[in-house]
Each structure stands twice: as structure tokens, then as C-alpha cells.
């Protein structure tokens, strides 16, 4: 949700800022803008609605000299307050044009601030919450105890703001300096030789430096060419946490594919390997950061899994595994619903919060609610040091690497694997599984990267099918048991990428309503359970397929290799390797991802940047 880049150093800032924005465009592409300081009191701003390329075109048309400064900042927007227009694009300025601000998040008390500014005679130039901060910083810098001190002025304004924000500010009077404040919204500092960077994500600057600094909650950072300084909102120095980025630029490039998503689908075996690596040691499962004792884990009498979207679908799978292995009740809940319905939580409740970004506002608020109720929180996250793991009692990182495509693919598989690791860790602590059983389950999990590799080698048939289905009006997805969350995930991928009506159903529910949707030629994708592992469910699903086929549906069946029983009822049969039941989603999801991507491409859509979506959703 909104990408931010800031730079002060020895290079042409415009190039650095645009390069960073290109890598952050996945965070929002409603509009983009830059503000450059020329070092002589000039502040040049350019903004454009739509994709970053619109801004680049506009910059190519305007006088290059104006944008030749060595410090500056940029923004790609995912609109919250105000339509995605030029007028609402960031950076926003104060009335004098001396202060420029870019912002990620939502300023909840902006209406009050706006009314106060308007009462003082200031005319707003946009509909955004962000613009208020530019006027407030200008006023704080002009007068009173913070006059002439940009860091102190930003601190004073940050103290007045409610909500979640990353705010990056520059003032024409201090050209070699950029100041940023953060609360519950991401910001990292890149530390180079004679240059410093600010960004929502390290991807924006890893081309230049791998040395980074993580900012804590309610902190302000001031960067100049030669130094950075971190303070709290009262301008008191605080200790910052340096770290080194352990993935390189090529990991964030497309690797020969048209789209990041296609590369990320192919990276799934490695994502699984990296997520599992190191988690089985000394005969047992080990998690990453466990600030809970073995006794705490033994005392748990209920598990809640909270997450959104694709992460929620991975959470649905966690329920099957944890209840089966640990004999403890598990509820899976959409994070956006969780805290509003007053769930029963206590010290012996474990809340597992799953989030690729670790920033999702709904999930973060669910975590906070759980902690207030004294529940223990374990985060499963793909982003080191993000807010959700920071606020949790324990963390298990999915090492899927950067995921740039907005639709989650490799992080979903990594989440499923991580959920299973959590299930096994709990089973081990609670004694519901012997250590040799845990070791066996882990070994089966460790064989999955190879099974996913095999699945990927057979997806050409799915691509062809995707092209054939490009003109379908709708597609239904059916599954039972662990195939049900897979059906939901298949439908979500299709909706978000191909803008096509798609629904996932538990196949047993068909006769309770959805069967009325079946009409001649309607494509229905069915995820079959194993004919051996789940014989009863298998035969029930075969009956479901017969029912829909009899009503004219075009049946697209995903089934294990050697499943001959279902073959006569499949208009199209897609085979996947035979693996243990709980692990089947790790292979059965893959053709559904490819199908959605291919239908979207055939319809001419950008699969990395589906309309109206952003990679991380930092507003509720
Ligand atoms: C769908 C998708 C979203 C995310 C959801 C949660 O492809 O990517 O549904 O899964 O927004 O995001 P995280 O995992 O970052 O909390």
C-alpha cells in the first residue's frame, strides 16, 4: 500500500528515486510522483495519475534541469482518501511550495486537522489526508519552539497524528536533508557510502546497498548525505537496529518471464525448501523466535488462526493439520472480523497470525486485540522485522523471498508449510505425537519441493486450457476436506487476476444451492482427494462430478496420477503427483495458479498488477 523512496547522496536523485519506485510499484499504482531539491532552494515536483510510466513520460517532457538535484523523494499511491487523480497524487506541498510530503497509511484525525487549517485560512489543494501534514510541518518550521529545525518540526507534527503512517518530508530551506516518521507502517533506511536511502521496502535500494536499518514504532529518522539519526517523536535519540539484506537484486527481477508472478510460481519448490530448512534439528521441530516456553505451548487449550485473503486460505489448511496432530480445537477467522465479534481469548489461547507482508492492518489489529486479551500470538510472516512479527510472542518466517506479483503464490505454499511446522511443533510440545512420528511427517513435508517441481513440469496443458477458457463468463471450483480451501484459493486467484466471476464451494454444499448455477458449458474445476488415502470422500466427489456433468457442466478435474475412477467423468483431466492427504494442497494449488494467470493473460491483463489491488493492505 503506497511505495515510498527517499534519497540524499552523490548521485542524481531522480534516477535513484525512479529506480526505487519501479521496484515498489507493486505497492500501489493509482498515481506516482517525485519531489527533487536542487540544492539552491528550489523544490521541483511532478505527479501523474495512473502507472509510474505516466509519470516517467511527463518527466521526459518537462525541463530536465529542474530535476537534477541530489536529494529527493518519490511515491507510488494506492488511493485511500481522494480519487486516484493528478490532484491527489503525492508529493503534497504547503501553500508556499517549500515543504513536500509523501505518505503511506491513513491519518485518522485528518478531518479535525483539516478543519483547523481551513479555519486558519489555508486552502487545500487536494482531497487527501496527507496534505494536512505538509501545512502543519510548514507552520511548525516557520514559528515557535521548532522553528528552523526540520527534524523537530516533523516530530511535533507526528505527535499530533492519529492512525498509521509513514511520512517523509523535505523542506527547500534544508536541501541536503530528508526527515521521515513512522507509526505502524513500514520504513527502512539504506546506509551507503556518502548516501542514504529511505524506502517502504529494501527492494527499492538493494541495487545500491545491502546495509539497512530497521525503524521501530513511533520513530523519526533524519538522513543526510553522510549520516542518519534516529529519534523518538520527542526528538530524543534512540538506538536503531542495523541489519544486512540477505537477498540480491536478481531475486527481485523477472528472471526471463513476462511477469513476476510467473517467475514466482516457478520458484515455489525453492520457497518450500527455504521455509523448511533448519527447522528440524536435534530430533525435533524448531521455530525461529519463540518467546514462549514449552509449558506455555502445553497449556494451550484453543488455537485461533487469523489472516486475510490467500493467507486465510492457508490458515484453513492449518486447522486440518493442527486438529489432526495436536487434538486441540482450532478456529480460523478472517482477521477483519475477529476483533469485532468479541472472541473468547485468554492466556491459554494461541493466536496464529499469518501474513506475507507482516503489515496487513486487519491482521495487525487482530494481533493487538489478542494481546490485550492476554492470548499468546505466533506470527507466520515472509518479511523480516515487519510489524506483525514484532508485536508477536513467537515468529516463524516463511523464506519465500520477495514476492512482487500482487497475487500471492509462492508465499501461499510457504505459509502452508509453515503452518504444518507450527502444528508439528505443537504436537511435539504437547506430546500428541512421538518424536519419530514428527520426524516422519517432517520428512514427508521435505519431499514436497520435488513433488511441486514435478507438478510444474506438466502445466503446459493447463496453459492451453487457460487460453480456451478466456471467454468463459464464470468458473466454479469444488473441493472437499483440504481440497475445499484449495478451491477457495483457485477462485480467488481467478477473480483477482482475470476479473472473472469465480466461486469456490465445498462440494457437499452443491446440492444445498450452488448446483442451480450449473448450466450448459459452465467450467467447473474439481479438486479430487486421493482415491487411496480418502476413498470415501473420493467416491462422494465422483458422484458430485456426475451430478454436474449431467447438468451440462464442463468438468476440469485435478486428480492424483493413477486415479482411473474419475477419468471417465473428466472433460479435462489434470494430474498431480500422489502425496499424503494433508500435503496435497501444496501440489493441487499449482495448476490453479497457472490457470488463473493464463486466463488473465489471454484476456490481456497485467497479472502482476491487478486493478484496484495492492500488495500490502495497510488500512482496515
Ligand atoms: C491474494 C492476496 C491477498 C493477500 C492478503 C493478505 O492473492 O495476495 O489476498 O493474501 O491481502 O496479505 P498478507 O499475507 O500480506 O497479510
TrEMBL record:
UniProt KW keywords: Aminotransferase, Cytoplasm, Glutamine amidotransferase, Repeat, Transferase
Biological processes, Gene Ontology terms: carbohydrate metabolic process; fructose 6-phosphate metabolic process; protein N-linked glycosylation; UDP-N-acetylglucosamine metabolic process
Active site: 2 (nucleophile), 615 (for fru-6p isomerization activity)
Coiled-coil portions: none
Domain of life according to the entry: Bacteria
PROSITE patterns: GATASE_TYPE_2, SIS
Protein's UniProt keywords contain Cytoplasm: yes
One GO MF term: glutamine-fructose-6-phosphate transaminase (isomerizing) activity
SIS domain residues: 293-432, 465-610
Claim: Cytoplasm is one of the keywords in the record: yes
Swiss-Prot/TrEMBL catalytic activity: D-fructose 6-phosphate + L-glutamine = D-glucosamine 6-phosphate + L-glutamate
Protein's cellular compartments: Cytoplasm
Domain Glutamine amidotransferase type-2: 2-226
A GO CC term assigned to this protein in UniProt: cytosol
Signal peptide: none
Entry's EC annotation: 2.6.1.16
Entries under NCBIfam families matching the protein: glmS, PRK00331.1
Function: Catalyzes the first step in hexosamine metabolism, converting fructose-6P into glucosamine-6P using glutamine as a nitrogen source.
HAMAP family: GlmS (MF_00164)
Subunit and interaction comment: Homodimer.
Name of this protein: Glutamine--fructose-6-phosphate aminotransferase [isomerizing]
Amino acid at each position: 500500500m503506497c511505495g515510498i523512496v527517499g534519497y540524499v547522496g552523490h548521485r542524481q536523485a531522480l534516477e535513484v528515486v525512479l529506480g526505487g519506485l519501479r521496484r515498489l510499484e507493486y505497492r500501489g499504482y493509482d498515481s506516482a510522483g517525485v519531489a527533487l531539491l536542487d540544492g539552491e532552494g528550489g523544490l521541483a515536483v511532478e505527479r501523474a495519475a495512473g502507472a509510474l510510466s505516466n509519470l516517467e513520460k511527463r518527466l521526459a517532457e518537462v525541463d530536465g534541469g529542474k530535476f537534477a538535484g541530489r536529494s529527493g523523494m518519490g511515491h507510488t499511491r494506492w488511493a485511500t482518501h481522494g480519487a486516484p487523480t493528478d490532484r491527489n497524487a503525492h508529493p503534497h506541498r504547503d501553500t508556499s511550495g517549500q515543504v513536500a510530503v509523501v505518505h503511506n497509511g491513513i491519518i485518522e484525525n485528518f478531518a479535525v486537522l483539516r478543519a483547523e487549517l481551513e479555519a486558519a485560512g489555508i486552502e487545500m489543494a487536494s482531497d487527501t489526508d496527507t496534505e494536512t501534514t505538509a501545512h502543519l510541518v510548514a507552520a511548525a518550521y516557520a514559528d515557535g519552539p521548532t522553528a528552523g529545525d526540520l527534524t523537530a518540526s516533523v516530530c511535533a507534527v507526528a505527535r499530533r497524528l492519529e492512525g498509521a503512517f509513514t511520512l517523509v518530508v523535505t523542506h527547500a530551506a534544508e536541501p541536503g536533508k530528508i526527515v521521515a516518521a513512522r507509526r505502524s507502517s513500514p520504513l527502512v533506511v539504506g546506509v551507503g557510502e556518502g548516501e542514504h536511502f529511505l524506502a517502504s521496502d529494501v527492494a527499492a535500494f538493494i541495487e545500491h546497498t545491502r546495509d539497512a536499518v530497521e525503524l521501530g514504532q513511533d520513530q523519526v529518522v533524519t538522513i543526510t548525505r553522510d549520516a542518519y539519526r534516529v529519534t523518538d517523536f520527542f526528538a530524543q535519540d534512540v538506538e536503531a537496529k542495523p541489519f544486512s539484506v540477505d537477498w540480491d537484486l536478481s531475486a527481485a527481477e523477472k528472471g526471463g518471464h513476462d511477469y513476476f508472478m510467473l517467475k514466482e510460481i516457478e520458484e515455489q519448490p525453492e520457497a518450500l525448501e527455504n521455509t523448511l530448512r533448519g527447522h528440524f534439528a536435534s530430533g525435533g521441530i524448531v521455530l525461529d523466535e519463540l518467546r514462549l516456553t514449552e509449558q506455555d505451548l502445553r497449556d494451550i487449550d484453543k488455537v485461533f488462526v487469523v489472516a486475510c485473503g490467500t493467507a486465510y486460505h492457508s490458515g484453513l489448511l492449518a486447522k486440518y493439520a493442527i486438529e489432526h496432530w495436536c487434538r486441540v480445537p482450532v478456529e480460523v477467522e478472517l482477521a477483519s472480523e475477529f476483533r469485532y465479534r468479541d472472541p473468547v481469548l485468554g492466556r491459554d489461547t494461541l493466536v496464529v497470525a499469518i501474513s506475507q507482508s507482516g503489515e496487513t492492518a486487519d491482521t495487525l489489529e487482530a494481533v493487538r486485540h489478542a494481546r490485550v486479551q492476554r492470548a499468546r500470538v505466533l506470527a507466520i510472516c515472509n518479511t523480516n522485522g515487519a510489524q506483525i512479527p514484532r508485536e508477536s510472542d513467537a515468529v516463524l518466517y516463511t523464506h519465500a523471498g520477495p514476492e512482487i506479483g500482487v497475487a500471492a503464490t509462492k508465499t501461499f505454499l510457504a505459509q502452508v508449510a509453515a503452518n504444518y511446522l507450527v502444528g508439528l511443533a505443537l504436537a511435539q510440545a504437547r506430546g500428541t505425537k512421538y518424536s519419530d512420528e514428527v520426524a516422519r511427517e517432517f520428512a514427508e513435508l521435505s519431499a514436497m519441493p520435488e513433488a511441486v517441481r514435478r507438478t510444474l513440469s506438466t502445466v503446459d496443458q493447463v496453459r492451453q486450457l487457460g487460453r480456451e477458457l478466456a471467454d468463459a463468463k464464470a468458473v466454479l471450483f469444488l473441493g472437499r476436506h483440504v481440497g475445499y480451501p484449495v478451491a477457495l484459493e483457485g477462485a480467488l486467484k481467478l477473480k483477482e487476476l482475470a476479473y472473472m466471476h469465480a466461486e469456490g464451494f465445498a462440494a457437499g454444499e452443491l446440492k444445498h444451492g450452488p448446483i442451480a448455477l450449473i448450466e450448459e458449458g459452465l467450467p467447473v474445476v474439481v479438486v479430487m482427494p486421493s482415491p487411496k488415502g480418502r476413498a470415501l470422500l473420493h467416491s462422494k466427489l465422483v458422484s458430485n462430478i456426475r451430478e454436474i456433468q449431467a447438468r451440462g457442466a464442463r468438468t476440469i478435474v485435478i486428480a492424483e496420477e493413477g486415479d482411473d475412477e474419475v477419468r471417465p467423468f473428466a472433460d479435462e483431466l489434470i494430474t498431480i503427483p500422489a502425496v499424503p492427504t494433508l500435503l496435497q494442497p501444496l501440489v493441487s494449488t499449482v495448476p490453479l495458479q497457472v490457470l488463473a494467470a493464463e486466463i488473465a493473460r489471454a484476456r490481456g491483463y497485467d497479472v502482476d498488477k491487478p486493478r484496484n489491488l495492492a500488495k500490502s493492505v495497510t488500512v482496515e
